[in-house]
Amino acid sequence: MKLNLNIQPLNTWLNTNNEPLLISGPCSAETEEQLLTTAHLLAATGKISVLRAGIWKPRTRPGEFEGIGSIGLEWLKRAKAETGLPIAVEVANAKHVEEALAAGVDILWIGARSTVNPFTVQEIADALKGHDVPVLIKNPVNPDLQLWIGAIERINGAGITKIGAIHRGFSSFEKSSFRNEPMWELAIQLKTLCPELPIINDPSHICGNRELIPYISQKALDLDMQGLMIESHVDPSVAWTDAKQQVTPAALAELVDRLTVREPEA
Ligand code: PEP
Ligand code: MN
Known about the structure:
alpha/beta; binds phosphoenolpyruvate
């Protein structure tokens, strides 16, 4: 059974030059200098369409860096003004949505730890009512397709039609070389239920290390996913979060050059 969603095709709300969408930027905005330097290096590659940075970070355990907070919006605004790149942040509650929209953030995303909670998703959906901002919805942490669908329905139900799903893998008790198991079949099932819904792959959070990212990226493109979100940092070795999986802007450009995109069938 198909899902009853009202979704606008990706190329009607984001210019990707008919190439897979590439979203990149640091896991976390750390300092203004780190964000701006990374943004300028990324823009100079000419490969990316959207700059991402987390400013409110959901950490598994307390006591670690939980994001730079609202000041990061000012840095992102400056990065946008200087590079011309649209900007994206993660939102996890109504206050985040209000602040991000007031700052002119172009794209919002809902993180895996928020998608698991219908109350949180509904709070975000209610805060989005009356706005026309694109929203990307990561899969929930656990392999529950219904929760992912439910989050998409809640955001769509608030009148948001510029929606994409982000496939970032699923936690599993099994020992694995991935940080989050791809479980591709769940993304494929989602696509089958809603063919018009763009699916963007997040190889960074699937892999948990930069070495595997090219393979997962290629696999996602082979499955006709419409884009990639890949974390990048001017100096990944000193990143405050997700250091092992971030790549430099130069490495990102190289990685993207090696990917092959299948010609659409005639
Ligand atoms: C992130 O994108 O940095 C992030 C926290 O991802 P996820 O919600 O997929 O864990
Ligand atoms: Mn991250």
